[in-house]
# Entry
Amino acid sequence: MARMKLDKFKVERSIDRRGSLVKVISHSYVGRKVFGEIYSIFFRERSVRANHYHKLTTEWFTVIKGIVNLYLKCVKTKETKLVKLDGNEPICVRVDPLVAHALRPVTNEEAILIAYSNKEYDPDNADTYRYEVIKEEVT
# Structure
């Protein structure tokens, strides 16, 4: 009889003044080079996340708790869009390369976002370019 295989691994968690980000799964966990990664963001009160764009990376965002505004701006055309992501009526939004994006909770209630990126983040070769889509509120 075959034995059941069970793999456990510690997931990466980054915490800063805006909240935290937990890498749920990435190609390094599953052994596939083309997987990318799935991560979650836990927002602190009205904190701004992202405010950047990618040249190669595509991301998909879904809010599972709370309400978060997703601000988008095309780097080339300067076209802007605002998408409300509501955990009570979840949708998934794809953000293509060269579309700058920023996320901010609508209320001071806890908000949680799940995201998929087709490219795993590598701090030594980051495909992340700072771009102010919205102003951060200074407290």
The chain has one helix and eleven strands. The longest strand covers residues 19-26. The two ends are 61 Å apart (CA to CA). The domain at 15-130 is CATH 2.60.120.10 (Jelly Rolls).
